[in-house]
């Protein structure tokens, strides 16, 4: 009986094990299938918008496809937090304390060899009594001095020091980047230093002069040939020009290259002459669609200055994209062609041959990028002839398209020319300043939406609130849309106040900026307009050690009006 009982339980146990194994395997297969379906169908949200919720709210709070535009700030790609889709800032070698110590070790070893090979006696530190600017120890003293003084700066490279105006002075030039800037652009400074020597027979800096004081170290920049320089006969500056800016237009080349290419062309829509934030939101929609379709984006370089930024209160057409944005960087990260050159080549090759260039016209934003993904036409031409708001470019990226088209914020940086002005202003304050952003203008006058803003940003209220946030006699940069220069005079009793208009010479007719933009504009002077002012103010604010904001620190009113916080 025992044997038959054992015989019957054995297959029962084996069957149970097989049943459990099959069940586990079925669960595993089902899990793999579910995961595969999710992986195929899932489209991640735009990581730029995830990483910048404030910008998301600014650009996506639309009512009936109208656009809320914040004119007080001008944010571009280099102001936003990095994302997995953003090309990271390439690693660069910078001058650190470790690098300086290694240089000192080399000098000490070479000096030991010299001392061992000579019998000439000399008194301690005699060779330092006359400063030899080419002595490597001079540069080491400057590097160490700068590291200690300018904590917010990354020093990238130095030039060999040259003689200053006195025997104990040297002029030194270097390239740098502010730690808060997320681009990989380099800026240049050159300063004058007065030297003494320490007890251990090393150079020490007795005095360092201010921004761009070391004029003898100013490198002679390569002159760039421009036919409009002589034709324009305009008064331009003889100062420093930035030879690292390349604004040349990309060329399509031969007919074969043109016909091999694939293009996405947006005709001008209702976004033209709207605010700058709407312009960027729409432009990046078009550029993002071109990237999604793997096509070259045909780009209109003409920007319209909206009336709200113009003293005449009229829209001003024909402003150049390159006045405001870094065209060189855009060319590096995106496939683009300028509209004028594209249309000329298109007409030329169409006339030259009976075989027309294949083209697909898209007359409504409701035709999605996904529907165009497999289109083989050489040119996809989106036309925006419908009435507003159906003719806004950004409508293309709404709805389901938002899951597929990612706006390439990393492609849009502010103009290097404007950023040079930002560096100049920050450098003159030795990168050691605080800032307050005071929003007034139309909002301060609108008591219905902002009932307390006017009184909360009055001179007396500002002084009272800032005294609790910023130490007295600090450099205080005031970024504002308040038109009256003397409005902030009360702050001068406690702070070293700086306003954008204190630096007018940086865009005057003797400035580098004036020279460069005049050349871009075929010899005609360019006005330093409201867009540019906001761009510079925005970037200087970001470089401050302490930032005070209107709608977070100075008033309880909501940024977008009553009951919108």
TrEMBL record:
Pfam families: DUF7074, DUF7075. This is O-fucosyltransferase family protein. Residues 257-550 form the DUF7075 domain. The lineage of its organism: Eukaryota, Viridiplantae, Streptophyta, Embryophyta, Tracheophyta. The chain crosses the membrane at residues 20-42. One of its GO terms (cellular component) is Golgi apparatus. Keywords: Coiled coil, Membrane, Transmembrane, Transmembrane helix. Residues 93-120 form a coiled coil. InterPro entries: DUF7074, DUF7075. The keyword DNA-binding does not apply. Residues 130-213 form the DUF7074 domain.
